[in-house]
Write a structure and sequence with these properties.
It is a single chain. With 209 residues, this protein is α/β, with parallel strands linked by helices. The protein has one domain: TIM Barrel, CATH 3.20.20.190. Helix content is 32%, strand content 22%. Strands 1, 2, 3, 4, 5, 6, 7, 8, 9 and 10 form a ten-stranded mixed β-sheet that branches. β5, α3 and β6 form a beta-alpha-beta unit. The longest helix has 11 residues.
């Protein structure tokens, strides 16, 4: 299992998506989930509408290259119309181990046409993932309850897809019972499974300790 540090490896909530949190995650060998949107015709790291202090995406990608991390980047696309800027930056920095997700369906078609790696979505509200055949993987979310079972993960892995699971604490629910189910099913050993979590160090110890 690969661990994705949700908005970086932050120690205080105000650090989310900051350069310090993103650098800490990469330095400790975790993958990173972070948010991209546009501000003044450039890409920035921001979950909500970007302020003047938002980290430039090009600075984050340069940091990724400098740390020689190679870990997975999960890029949550918070706006449409960004794929041209994004593709240019990814190519310039030579970044291969990434995927984009959460764009609209019309935008997803553009990602597919242009060869950008993307994950489709599955949740209790999206039981039939869009563009499944074209997607490199599936972003599996659990908004209202821990509905995902081992068989739900296995069907995607067996189809040759990577699977990224949203850990329950991202929706303010306890996470350890869900983690225990994954470990008991032997999924912690599968490198095509990714877990997006606010507790990357605890997750690494739980699944790989």
């Amino acid at each position: 299992m690969q661990i994705l540090a949700h908005r970086g490896f932050w120690e205080h909530a105000e650090e989310k998506n900051s350069a310090a949190a993103l650098r800490r995650a990469l330095a400790e060998g975790y993958g990173v989930e972070t948010d991209l949107r546009d501000a003044a015709q450039r890409l920035v790291i921001a979950h909500d509408p970007a302020g003047p202090g938002a980290l430039a995406a090009e600075d984050f990608f340069a940091l990724y290259r400098e740390t020689q991390s190679g870990a997975a980047l999960a890029l949550n696309m918070k706006a449409d119309g960004l794929r041209g800027l994004l593709k240019s930056l990814l190519q310039r920095e030579g970044i291969k181990n990434y995927f984009c997700f959460d764009m609209s369906v019309p935008e997803m078609l553009g990602y597919a046409r242009e060869g950008l790696r993307f994950f489709t979505r599955e949740s209790e509200f999206e039981p039939a993932p869009t563009l499944y055949a074209e997607a490199a993987g599936v972003w599996v979310d659990m908004f209202q309850g821990d509905w995902v079972q081992a068989r739900d993960v296995a069907k995607h892995l067996d189809a040759g897809k990577q699977v990224a699971l949203v850990s329950p604490e991202l929706h303010r629910r306890p996470h350890l019972d869900f983690w225990a189910r994954l470990r008991a099913a032997g999924l912690g050993a599968n490198d095509n499974l990714l877990l997006c979590t606010d507790y990357p160090r605890a997750a690494r110890d739980f699944f790989h300790g």
